């Protein structure tokens, strides 16, 4: 699923900024289809083993470039 690619990209961005996924405090997940929630959640859980950040998940009608998932993240340095 695209969730893995999104979280790898976010991890790389955070590392380049001197941070990391372990410093994430909030994520917003936007799914094209809420039926994909279980699959997204399974992949998401592999990246946040303990103390996952606060998260909201919503279904949206359309995402840029017709992707299936988009995640925004707030993290500490």
Strand content range: 25-35%
Distance between the first and last residues' Cα: 28 Å
- Please tally the β strands and state the result: 3
List low-confidence stretches.
Answer: none
Indicate the CATH topology: 60s Ribosomal Protein L30, Chain: A
Mean pLDDT: 96
CATH homologous superfamily caption: RutC-like
CATH uppermost class: Alpha Beta
Global outline: globular
Rg calc: 12 Å
SS class: alpha+beta
Question: Which CATH architecture?
Answer: 2-Layer Sandwich
What is the strand arrangement across the widest sheet?
Answer: 2-1-3
Polypeptide structure, described:
The chain has 77 residues and is of the alpha+beta class. A three-stranded mixed sheet has the order 2-1-3, covered by helices on one side. The protein has a single domain (2-75), classed as 60s Ribosomal Protein L30, Chain: A, CATH 3.30.1330. The N and C termini lie far apart (28 Å). The chain has helices at 2-16, 37-47; strands at residues 24-31, 54-59, 69-75.
Q: Summarize this, please?
A:
The chain contains two helices and three strands. The chain is an alpha+beta fold and 77 residues long.
Question: What is the element layout, followed by pairings?
Answer:
Blueprint (H helix, E strand, L loop, with lengths): L1 H15 L7 E8 L5 H11 L6 E6 L9 E7 L2
Parallel strand pairs: 1-2
Antiparallel strand pairs: 1-3
Helix pairs in contact: 1-2
């Amino acid at each position: 699923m695209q969730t893995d690619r999104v979280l790898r990209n976010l991890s790389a961005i955070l590392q380049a900024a001197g941070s990391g996924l372990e410093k994430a405090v909030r994520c917003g997940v936007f799914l094209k289809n809420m039926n994909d929630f279980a699959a997204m959640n399974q992949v998401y859980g592999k990246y946040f083993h303990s103390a996952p950040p606060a998260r909201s998940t919503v279904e949206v009608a359309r995402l840029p470039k017709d992707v299936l998932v988009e995640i925004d993240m707030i993290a500490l340095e």
